[in-house]
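User:
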Amino acid sequence: MSHFLVIGGTGMLADAVLAWNQKGHTITVVARTKEKLKRLVSRAAFPEQLHIVQSDYLQLGSFMNQLAQLSAPDVIVSWIHRSGNDAVQWLCNQYKKSDNRIAFFHIKGSSAHNPKQNFTPYLSNFISYHEVILGFQLISGVSRWLTNTEIAAGVMHATEQKLPKYIVGTVEPWDARP
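Assistant: Predicted structure:
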């Protein structure tokens, strides 16, 4: 079984965290809100395999100190907004000499589809980097944002496929975004 480090796993990624836990994986979830973290653990099939860390990636010093104490994961699933690009780069640097190759799934909003608005961290050979871009649904000419269930299912599929770039939903046509 794998060890997942999930940044931002109490909201739209909660169903994915719980599914990975149900499959027997060890999960460390990092989120800002202690109450949401505790709620997530209470829903887990194997709560002893679901570890929580209360931290905010925008408080970079504290974030780095807390995560530096963790063992290297096999998989990182990171829902860190562009305002936290320094935290993403730190994660890549932190595990650049890991004993095993780490699969890093960087979850991004639909604007990352535009190369001018997309951030890609500097990577070492020990990181296998995968972008997961969250788009929208377009049905019969009507668009809507993805639901948390669709996002979690898409992210889980992306971690199974291990493609360099995976789009959940669609990002085209761009002017059809909700």
